[in-house]
Amino acid sequence: MLENRTIIVTGAAGGIGRATALILGAAGANVVASDIDANGADTVEAIRSAGGAGHFCRADVGSEPGVAALVRETIERYGRLHGAFNNAGVEQANVPLHELSIDQWDRAIRIDLTGVFLCLKHEITAMLENGGGAIVNTASALGEVAIPNAAEYVTAKHGVTGLTRAAAIEYGVRGIRVNAVLPGIIRTPMIDRAIEHPDFAAGFGKLLEHHPIGRFGKPPEVGEAVKWLLSDAASFVTGAMIPVDGGYRAI
Ligand code: NAD
Q1: Phi, psi of 242 (to 5 degrees)
Q2: pLDDT > 70: percent of the chain
């Protein structure tokens, strides 16, 4: 489905990013797996072991020089950029808004929102020079609704949905599709960490009620949607917010 396409995946060391990188590698893509965590190199090892192609590039999505270097290294290695999954992110601090420190706010906005902006900026620049491409951003069901004690995360993810729409309408006519996936709760290291916080843990059972499918999601279930959105099978889809949430937003 993605033979010889070169695709960047951020946040590829674990969770949704790693699972998606493996799926894209199995679909024939050259996967540039990126993460701030050096363990992202293991994801590339796993892609290669399964017969695919990949390269690890360590980068902080909150740093413009870091993101610029990621895109540059991708072009140097594979010649051009066809696709990107802008997925790296951090969870909320689990405190009420009036107790949220400016550092906690800045961290979420820098990584979860500015990180997506920086990736879009440099990926789109590269794609405009080479005939277009497809981009998927990871927003969240919390890009459309809120939960308590997550104001900085909810705000950042609402920003990602806005940014996705803004980019889609600016670049559609120039051959670049931009969409977002909006996962519900997916069991990943992020959720394992969040659940250690007593306030989040207390509300966790109630969150299951928001998933009418009766369970939380698995990382490859997001990865399959991303694969489709990045492929030519989704050639008329842009500016779409694709829920992968077990029905969270249907209630
Ligand atoms: P995760 O913590 O398992 O993986 C996130 C990855 O991002 C990690 O490998 C981490 O090292 C990396 N990362 C963090 N900061 C970074 C930075 N500054 N630069 C580069 N990489 C960085 O989390 P996940 O659950 O797989 O989350 C992936 C994305 O999905 C995030 O954007 C998250 O907000 C979103 N999301 C997750 C869920 C869920 O329930 N797990 C639900 C909705 C949205």
Answers
A1: -95, 110
A2: 100
> For ligand 1, is residue 180 a contact (CB within 6 Å)?
no
Enzyme catalytic residues: 153
**pLDDT at residue 175, rounded to an integer:** 98
Angle at 98 between CA 94 and CA 104, to 5 degrees: 50
Q: Is 161 in the pocket of ligand 1 (CB under 6 A)?
A: no
Q: How many angstroms from the chain centroid is the CA of residue 136?
A: 7
Task: Give one DSSP letter per residue of 161-197, joined into a string.
Answer: HHHHHHHHHHHGGGTEEEEEEEE--B-SHHHHHHTTS
Closest atom of ligand 1 to 193 CA is 2
Q: Is the CB of 140 under 6 A from ligand 1?
A: yes
Q: How far is the centre of ligand 1, averaged over its atoms, from the C-alpha of 35 (Å)? A: 10
Q: Look at residue 147 and give its three-state secondary structure.
A: coil
CA angle 82, 227, 111 (to 5 degrees): 75
- pTM of this prediction? 0.98
Closest C-alpha to 244, from 183, 161, 198 = 183
Distance of CA 89 to the CA centre of its chain: 7
**Structure tokens of 74?**
């991708």
